[in-house]
Fold this protein.
Amino acid sequence: MKRAKISLIGGGQIGGVLAQLCAQRELGDVVLFDIVEGLPQGKMLDLAEVARIDQFDVDLKGTNSYTDIAGSDIVIVTAGLPRKPGMSRDDLLGINSKIMKQVSEGIKEYAPDAFVIIISNPLDAMVTLCQKVTGFPSERVIGQAGVLDSNRFCSFIAWELGVSVRDVNAMVLGGHGDTMVPIVRYANVNGVPVMEQLVRKYGGDQAKAQEVMDAMVERTKMAGGEVVKLLGNGSAFYSPASSAIAMAEAILRDQKRVLPVCALLKGEFGVDNYYVGVPCVLGSKGVEAIIEFDLNKEEQAMFDNSVKAVKKLIDELPTILPDLAAILNG
Ligand code: APR
C-alpha cells in the first residue's frame, strides 16, 4: 500500500521538529520545503541519517521547489516569521500574509487534493487567507492553535494539582491571540471538576481557589509570549509541532478525534463565516463535525470578544494584499 505523503512548508524551527515527528511515527513520506537554499536539504539529510537508530522507513526530501509537493495528502505550513520578545502574534500580520499568499498559491497549484494545516501566525487570519486563496473546501483547511493552547492549560492545571497531565482535560477556544477563551467550567481531572479540587486543596477557600484558577487562565493566554521571552530569539517550536502532528495523525488514521481546531464556522457558536477555534471531530474527511455546546453568558462574551479580534485582522487583509481584495471580500 502506498505511504501517505506529508509536505511541510517552512523548514525552520517548527518545520524541523515536524519532520522528525512524522518520521519517528512513520506517518508517511516527508517533503520539507523552504525558500532558503540548502536548509531543507540539510535538515532532511541529517534526519535520514538517523533512520537506522530510530527505526523508521520513510522517504525524506528537502526542496526549494513546489513541484516536489505534488500528490501530498497533507500539507503543514509554518512558513513565516516568528515573533520577537514584546511582539504580539498580530504584529506579524503584514509580513506573514504576504508569505501565506505565496505559499497558498503553491499549494493550490501543486497539491490541490491535500488537507492543509496552518501553524503560521497570526493563526486565524493566516488560515482564512489560505482557504480563500486555495479555494479548497473549508473542512480541508484548518489551523493549529487550540490543541496547543489547551495542552498548555492542562499542563498548568496538572502542575498545580500534582497529577499526571494525561488525566487532565481542558479546552481553550476562540482565536489564537491574547483574547483566547480557556473554558474553566468543564476543566476536569478524569471527570472530577478542577475547581472543586482547587477549593479542597485550599481548605474550602473559594476566593483563593478562584485566584489560582485566574492565574492559570492568564498564564495560558500569555504562554506563547512566556516562551518567546525566555528564548530571546524565536518562538515555541516543540509544542506547536506536536500539536499539529496530533491533528495530522487524526486525519491520516481517520481517528475521529475531538480536538479544538481553528475551523470555519457557519453559524455555530453564533458566528458566521469566520475561522475560530472550536471543538471538532477530525477524521479522514478533515473537519467531519463541529461540536457545539452552550456557552454561559460570561464565556459567550469572551468568545465574542475573541471573534471580534479575529475579525479586526481579517478586515486588514485587503489593505495588505490589495490584489486579493475581491477574493477576500467575496
Ligand atoms: N515560503 C516558504 N518558506 C518561507 C517563506 C516562504 N515564502 N518565507 C519564509 N519561509 C521560511 C523561513 O526561511 C524559515 O525557515 O519559514 C521558516 C520559518 O521558520 P522559523 O523562522 O524558524 O519560525 P518557526 O519558529 O518555525 O515559526 C514559524 O509558526 O508558530 C508560528 O509564529 C510562528 O509564524 C511563525 C511560524
